[in-house]
Amino acid sequence: AGCEKETSSYMWVYILLGNMLRGIGETPITPLGISYLDDFAKEENAPVYIASLHTIAMLGPMFGFMLGSLCARLYVDIGFVDLESITITPQDSRWVGAWWLGFIIAGTVSLLSAIPFCFLPKSLEKPEGANHDKTSSGLLEERGATEKTHTSTKSKSKKCQLIYLFLADFCTSLKTVLSNPMYITLLCSSLLQFNSFVGFLTYKPKYMEQQYGQSASKSNFIIGLTSLPPVGLGIFLGGLIMKKYKMGITGAAKFAFSMSFAAFLLTLLHFFVGCENHMVAGLTVSYD
């Protein structure tokens, strides 16, 4: 009973709120960035630009793993205790790295990188040769014209009409998206891919620590250096292939299916590769 105690720290609440704010700030970059590229880029160049956007997005986790590796080498109370008095090393199971330092560094860099967005123009002219189909910018212009038309009504009902128009447009758009078989299929396949990818990144460092006796710092460094760059390279090459062969929606779907099926076959090889389990008294072997 003397070893049991309740957790009194509420630090997890601050981490939860911080990650929530970070997600709110980062989320618009992908949908708005892709919409911008689709609106203002030539149709044959859009796949390469979008692939470049996703490739750069993959470099962030790679540097994050490296930063985590560096922080894990530092003791958790760095700056508050005399490091010479610490008798354990990062290889010790009792070692706790400076996990909080990465949040401060990443938060500062994110804040500084957001400053240039404040100096972007409110609207840009559409270049020649760009996609002249019904784009998001055109829809916004139509919506602005509709709102200007309705602002000539009485001031009391102006806000109600704008809210009603917004909700009506949102519901119509949502119904159109959810009734699109291609989008729903892509969404389901993306969920499956990210589920496997997240599980891979979550448990592979622990596997390397247990099977190869590596520290958490070195495991994170190796994962970031070997796993994420090939993914970014694959995304970029996919964009180049789509541009070269000028694939449409159907061609892109066939190409994605072929690559996913090939990746599935290669993943099956994991079942034939592995290491023997460590002998743990009471778990894999008897105490005798």
Automatic annotation (TrEMBL):
<dbReference type="InterPro" id="IPR036259">
    <property type="entry name" value="MFS_trans_sf"/>
</dbReference>
<feature type="compositionally biased region" description="Basic and acidic residues">
    <location>
        <begin position="127"/>
        <end position="150"/>
    </location>
</feature>
<feature type="transmembrane region" description="Helical">
    <location>
        <begin position="96"/>
        <end position="120"/>
    </location>
</feature>
<feature type="region of interest" description="Disordered">
    <location>
        <begin position="127"/>
        <end position="152"/>
    </location>
</feature>
<dbReference type="GO" id="GO:0043252">
    <property type="term" value="P:sodium-independent organic anion transport"/>
</dbReference>
<dbReference type="GO" id="GO:0016323">
    <property type="term" value="C:basolateral plasma membrane"/>
</dbReference>
<feature type="transmembrane region" description="Helical">
    <location>
        <begin position="253"/>
        <end position="273"/>
    </location>
</feature>
<keyword id="KW-0812">Transmembrane</keyword>
<feature type="transmembrane region" description="Helical">
    <location>
        <begin position="221"/>
        <end position="241"/>
    </location>
</feature>
<comment type="similarity">
    <text>Belongs to the organo anion transporter (TC 2.A.60) family.</text>
</comment>
<dbReference type="GO" id="GO:0015347">
    <property type="term" value="F:sodium-independent organic anion transmembrane transporter activity"/>
</dbReference>
<keyword id="KW-0813">Transport</keyword>
<dbReference type="InterPro" id="IPR004156">
    <property type="entry name" value="OATP"/>
</dbReference>
<keyword id="KW-1015">Disulfide bond</keyword>
<dbReference type="GO" id="GO:0015125">
    <property type="term" value="F:bile acid transmembrane transporter activity"/>
</dbReference>
<keyword id="KW-1133">Transmembrane helix</keyword>
<keyword id="KW-0406">Ion transport</keyword>
<feature type="transmembrane region" description="Helical">
    <location>
        <begin position="182"/>
        <end position="201"/>
    </location>
</feature>
<keyword id="KW-0472">Membrane</keyword>
<protein>
    <recommendedName>
        <fullName>Solute carrier organic anion transporter family member</fullName>
    </recommendedName>
</protein>
<feature type="transmembrane region" description="Helical">
    <location>
        <begin position="56"/>
        <end position="76"/>
    </location>
</feature>
<dbReference type="GO" id="GO:0006811">
    <property type="term" value="P:monoatomic ion transport"/>
</dbReference>
<dbReference type="Pfam" id="PF03137">
    <property type="entry name" value="OATP"/>
</dbReference>
